[in-house]
């Protein structure tokens, strides 16, 4: 049954820019880093991917899903359909999570294709693979968060808040002892021991405290817990808003 909900949500995004972003955004990230500095290519690529391009992509996925629904019927199609509203919301988040994962895989393929032509990896292939899946896992919470923002406040707010949270404070918090308290710092902080990069994009020196691997399970667990909590809260909010609108229309 839930698969049918996911198929419906995926179909809604057919022939939209959201589908194109799955390949375009990782390609732009790699191209941007390649042009900026070949010497620190891998460090810069993962840095820009974690602090800018991934948060932007996730916010755009969520905002476009909202815009698509609004343009189609202003959510009236969902309001009038005999569906479980919480499952509809869960399906939206799940489809975007799969889009994010697909984008990570494309990013990984591009990185390895470049490595085959021009060897640039300062680390082995396994840290690069691990970094991609870590970035996916530690940004999952942003999906229900941005979906809720887009639904309540619109396209621009979702994008601005997610980027601001990462660029304005995420980079700073990632180097501090309280990194765990600021969700936007989790993917950035996890890249330090995995790839060996400072949140500012430069390679870390041997023995640097940021190389501690203990932060990785903490970041993953916190992200999954926050993802579950936000998914539950946003799902209830979505269902409640629909019920309230239905009552207003009847009245």
Domain module tally: 1
Mean of pLDDT: 88
* Number of contiguous helices: 10
By DSSP, the count of extended strands is 0
Low-confidence runs of at least 5 consecutive residues? none
Order of helices and strands: HHHHHHHHHH
Largest pleated sheet: none
Pfam family, one: ABC2_membrane_4
Transmembrane segments: 21-42, 48-67, 87-114, 126-150, 157-181, 210-233
Protein name: Lantibiotic protection ABC transporter permease
InterPro entries: Lanti_perm_SpaE/MutE/EpiE-like
Task: Map the helices and strands.
Layout: H1 2-12, H2 17-36, H3 41-73, H4 76-80, H5 85-117, H6 125-138, H7 142-153, H8 155-173, H9 185-195, H10 215-250
Can you give a write-up of this model?
The chain crosses the membrane at residues 21-42, 48-67, 87-114, 126-150, 157-181, 210-233. The protein has 251 residues and is an all-alpha fold. The protein has one domain (1-250). It has helices spanning 2-12, 17-36, 41-73, 76-80, 85-117, 125-138, 142-153, 155-173, 185-195, 215-250. α3 (41-73) runs antiparallel to α5 (85-117), α7 runs parallel beside α10 (215-250) and α9 (185-195) packs antiparallel against α10 (215-250). The protein is globular. The relative contact order is 0.14.
């Amino acid at each position: 049954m839930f698969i049918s909900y996911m198929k419906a949500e995926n179909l809604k995004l057919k022939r939209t820019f959201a589908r194109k972003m799955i390949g375009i955004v990782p390609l732009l990230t790699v191209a941007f880093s390649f042009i900026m500095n070949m010497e620190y290519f891998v460090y810069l690529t993962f840095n820009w991917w974690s602090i800018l391009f991934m948060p932007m992509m996730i916010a755009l996925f969520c905002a476009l899903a909202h815009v698509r629904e609004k343009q189609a019927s202003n959510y009236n199609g969902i309001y009038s359909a005999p569906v479980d509203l919480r499952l509809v919301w869960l399906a939206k988040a799940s489809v975007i999570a799969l889009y994010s994962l697909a984008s990570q895989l494309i990013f990984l393929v591009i990185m390895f294709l470049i490595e085959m032509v021009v060897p640039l990896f300062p680390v082995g292939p396994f840290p690069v693979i691990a970094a991609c899946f870590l970035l996916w896992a530690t940004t999952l919470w942003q999906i229900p968060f941005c979906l809720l923002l887009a639904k309540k406040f619109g396209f621009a707010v979702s994008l601005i808040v997610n980027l601001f949270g990462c660029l304005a404070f995420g980079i700073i918090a990632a180097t501090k002892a309280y990194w765990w308290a600021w969700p936007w710092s989790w993917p950035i902080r996890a890249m330090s021991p995995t790839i060996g990069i400072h949140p500012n994009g430069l390679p870390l020196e041997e023995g640097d405290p940021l190389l501690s691997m203990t932060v990785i399970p903490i970041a993953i667990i916190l992200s999954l817990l926050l993802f579950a909590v936000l998914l539950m809260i946003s799902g209830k909010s979505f269902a409640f808003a629909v019920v309230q609108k239905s009552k207003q229309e009847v009245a």
